[in-house]
Amino acid sequence: MICAGFDYVRPRTLAEAISLLARDEAKVLAGGQSLIPAMKLRLAAPALLVDLQALGELTGIRREGERFRIGALTTHATVAESAELQRDAPALWHAANQLGDPQVRNRGTIGGSCAHHDPAADYPAVLRAFEARFTIAGKNGTRELAADEFFGGMFECALESCDILTEIGFAAAPHSAYVKYHHPASHYALVGVAAVLSMRGDAIAMARIGVTGVGDSSFRAGAVERALVGVRPSDEAGVQAACAGAAAGVEARSELAASGAYRAAMTDVFAARAVKAAAHA
């Protein structure tokens, strides 16, 4: 289908972009991998597209001590090609390498994906498990939000009409992994689980588990996180027992590709796989 008519502007500064978003029915264009298909289907009809591609300061991966900072316009391909992320934040590297197809990875951006917050998107599970911080610029200045504050319900996040996500920051997480059961056509997650661990000897001292693809929103599996403390990753039965009921309390979505009951059952399976992969990262 053909999009409805719209105006297009490519601002040269972040301040200009924020001021343009004050116009009625204005939308940010980052990589366009979600917005443009929605426009073609007439599910979205913005009067103005504010293309951020000229804002080079919003791209790139930087390391500051034990923390990473990733510009919101950094493409999935750039994340997937980072040897430093592969070594010190492998869950994010795994997610980027399993995301979509080459065209999507080369055009889509990490910030655009997070702002869209598709219930089956990969990054939200990882960034919740990383306890990432999101830097947002708006008409009233800059603010920072934790991942659990940034992500909302289905296709919802904390960005307001004149806000632009500029950067995502998180601590290095070398013992981390992301695994997913992907939809065979779209490669979105039917179930995706991110695990971040810290170890004390051969036992888990701390676990953070992020889940996507199951309910209407990504979420943390808090009960599983608590149950994993003290478990040895080599104890397969112990890991499986700790991961049982990972989707408890979440209304799992049903569709042709997977029923809600199947999704819930697979959450336990993929949580255990993510924990074992993180322990060996």
Query: What global shape is seen?
Result: globular
Number of domains: 3
- Global structural class: alpha+beta
Q: So, CATH architecture of the largest domain?
A: 2-Layer Sandwich
Main pleated-sheet profile: 5 strands, antiparallel
Portion in beta strands: 25-35%
Q: Would you give the CATH topology of the largest domain?
A: Uridine Diphospho-n-acetylenolpyruvylglucosamine Reductase, domain 3
**Number of helix segments?**
12
List keywords for this structure.
281 residues; alpha+beta; Uridine Diphospho-n-acetylenolpyruvylglucosamine Reductase, domain 2; Uridine Diphospho-n-acetylenolpyruvylglucosamine Reductase, domain 3; Enolase-like, domain 1; 3 domains; five-stranded antiparallel beta sheet; 12 helices; 12 strands; globular
Protein model, in words:
There is one protein chain. The chain is an alpha+beta fold and 281 residues long. It contains 12 helices and 12 strands. The protein has 3 domains: 7-51, Uridine Diphospho-n-acetylenolpyruvylglucosamine Reductase, domain 2; 56-171, Uridine Diphospho-n-acetylenolpyruvylglucosamine Reductase, domain 3 (2-Layer Sandwich), CATH 3.30.465; 176-279, Enolase-like, domain 1 (2-Layer Sandwich), CATH 3.30.390.50. A 5-stranded antiparallel β-sheet has the order 4-5-8-6-7. It has a 4-stranded antiparallel β-sheet with strand order 9-10-11-12. Helix 10 packs antiparallel against helix 11. The protein is globular and about 60 Å long. The mean pLDDT is 95.
